[in-house]
Specification:
The protein is of the alpha+beta class and 121 residues long. The protein is 64% helix and 21% strand. Helix 1 packs antiparallel against helix 2 (62-120).
Length: 121
Amino acid sequence: MRFGQSNECLEQLQEHVKDNASGEKQKMLVPLSQSVYVDGFITKPDTVLVDIGTGYYVEKNINSARIFLKKRIDMIQGNASKVNDLIKRKEQMMQDTQIAFQQKMAQMQQMNEGVAAAASS
């Protein structure tokens, strides 16, 4: 999950900041895609840019970013739970409809057999 990976990156960054508290620019590789990286520098190691949606980014400290990610993860998990519940209800409704349809078909078939038997006698 994308937000889980982001949370792991924040943990690694926080550990890196603790280990290198010298205040000088720190070199790092910046991912442009999954396979392409370029050299970059960390100028403010205690802040990160957080994508808040629709192409907007906000600068936050690491703890605020972690809180934001936790809220976003909780929201997504809650929505996924609601969708799963809805799917289960819809599947149950579909099964109920199929059973009712089969019962109606059986009744129609019995009525047709009864009419055919009465007509032949």
